[in-house]
Write a structure and sequence with these properties.
The complex is a heterodimer of chains A (308) and B (88).
Chain A lengths: L3 E5 L2 E5 L18 E5 L11 E3 L2 E3 L3 E6 L3 E6 L3 E6 L5 H19 L3 E3 L1 E6 L2 E6 L6 H10 L4 E3 L3 E4 L5 E2 L6 E4 H6 L6 E4 L6 E4 L9 E12 L6 E4 L2 H10 L10 H17 L1 E8 L5 H14 L8
Parallel strand pairs in A: 2-3, 3-8, 11-18, 18-20
Antiparallel strand pairs in A: 1-2, 4-5, 5-6, 6-7, 7-8, 9-13, 10-11, 10-12, 13-14, 14-18, 15-17, 16-17, 19-20
Chain B lengths: L1 E4 L4 E5 L2 E6 L4 E5 L1 H9 L4 E2 H11 L4 H17 L3 E4 L2
Antiparallel strand pairs in B: 1-5, 1-6, 2-3, 3-4
The chains are: A alpha+beta (308), B alpha+beta (88).
Chain lengths: 308, 88
């Protein structure tokens, strides 16, 4: 077994390598759900359902390759094996283990992943999704500082089941130094993010570690030039389209069967929770305004505004 | 004139709407209650005249308005690659 323990997407993970930006999480009472180890990865599969130059998928396993970094093999939703290519050091492979490889593994387990950050409001998860740079992590960081525990940052795994449940993820926030300074989170600041100039892992002020139903989803939208922020409900068709657009999809999900899976998932999420568009100016000065606007909105839609 | 569904559309009921996605066209459509009923009725090729008679029975609408709105809606489905119309 690996030497490092993590909680990723609600799963207990044992890894032979350090996964950057994920808090160590050892729970002796919980069996290991996923192991990550180093080993030989064979190049081909026998009966391949979906194939592209870098992805091979069949019922039992997924193989993929990040050129010049590593090859990955995922089995039965509980085992990730990697083999570095061209002598790439392990610490350069690690970010892909926590990202692409884990995303694909969750697909094997039938979960979907959104590019979203989530905080707990009352007993529900409130999600913020949008492209990189839209402010997901910054808003989550501000809310965590205001005692809404962080549930997930950027990588939001959802177990569909009877009611879609957001799985807690011990990933740290990834924030730009200007945001860290503005939010006064310097004391929580950790290592720099892999090959990202000026971006750092930041420990959230509070974190939640239980699966939660979805209270609301906000799709972040930037205004040019920004007058003020506003929140508006989305029509079902726009909600579904935007949720799919914000799905965390490794290349393999262009296959038909994954698109159908994500369509079903987006419809299930849109039926379980209200989806809103949150339009805001792209700067840090509006953050106090965003927080008060959100708290008013949560009261209006019946989410208790403040956790005791 | 008959109308029928075409394409690879996936559908899901979300609230009151039927949301449709076509991977082939990269498009999403949202149908209201009446649109959803039309979509059901053209699962198998259906005479537009029969379609209108059914809708007139089920919804409060005059034959003239019904015919005009059904034709407009079917044309929209055709433009989006979701239906085809066959002249006799």
């Amino acid at each position: 077994l690996g030497a490092y323990s993590y909680r990723i997407a609600g799963l207990s993970v044992s890894s032979v390598v350090v996964l950057p930006g994920i808090a160590n999480f050892a729970d002796d009472n919980r069996p290991v759900d996923v192991t990550i180890h180093q080993g030989a990865v064979e190049g081909t599969l026998s009966a391949t359902d979906v194939s592209s130059p870098f992805w091979q998928i069949d019922r039992e396993q997924i193989l993929f390759r990040i050129p010049n970094i590593a090859r990955f093999q995922l089995r039965a939703g509980n085992e990730i094996t990697f083999e570095a290519e061209n002598g790439t050091p392990i610490e350069d492979v690690a970010p892909f283990l926590a990202g692409s490889a884990f995303g694909a593994l969750l697909h094997q387990r039938g979960l979907v992943v959104l590019h979203a950050s989530a905080v707990r409001v009352a007993d529900k998860a409130v999600l913020f999704c949008g492209p990189s740079g839209a402010g997901k992590s910054t808003i989550a960081a501000v809310l965590a500082k205001r005692s809404y525990p962080l549930v997930a940052d950027d990588f939001c795994a959802i177990d569909l089941g009877a009611v879609p449940m957001v799985q807690p993820d011990a990933r740290q926030l990834k924030l730009w130094s200007v945001a860290i300074e503005r939010l006064g989170l310097g004391a929580n600041c950790g290592a720099p993010v892999y090959r990202r100039a000026d971006k750092y892992f930041v420990e959230p002020n509070e974190a939640s570690d239980e699966p939660l139903p979805i209270g609301a989803v906000y799709v972040l939208w930037e205004t040019h030039p920004p007058p003020t922020s506003c929140v508006e409900p989305l029509k079902p068709v726009d909600a579904v389209a935007l949720l799919i657009q914000n799905a965390y999809r490794p290349q393999m999900t262009s296959g038909m069967d994954q698109r159908a899976q994500y369509f079903k998932a987006a419809a299930a999420i849109a039926n379980a929770a209200q989806i809103f568009r949150l339009t805001r100016p792209q700067n840090l000065a509006d953050l106090p305004d965003i927080v008060s606007r959100l708290e008013c909105h949560w009261a209006a839609i019946g989410l208790t505004a403040r956790v005791a | 004139m008959t109308a029928r569904r075409i394409g690879d559309w996936l559908t899901a009921k979300v609230g009151e709407e039927l949301v449709m996605m076509s991977a082939e066209h990269g498009k999403f459509l949202g149908l209201n209650e009446v649109g959803t009923r039309v979509w059901e009725l053209i699962e198998a090729p259906c005479e537009v005249a029969d379609l209108c008679r059914t809708l007139e029975r089920e919804f409060e609408v005059t034959p003239e308005v019904c015919r005009a709105e059904v034709e407009a809606f079917l044309n929209e489905l055709v433009e989006n690659g979701a239906a085809a119309l066959n002249l006799p």
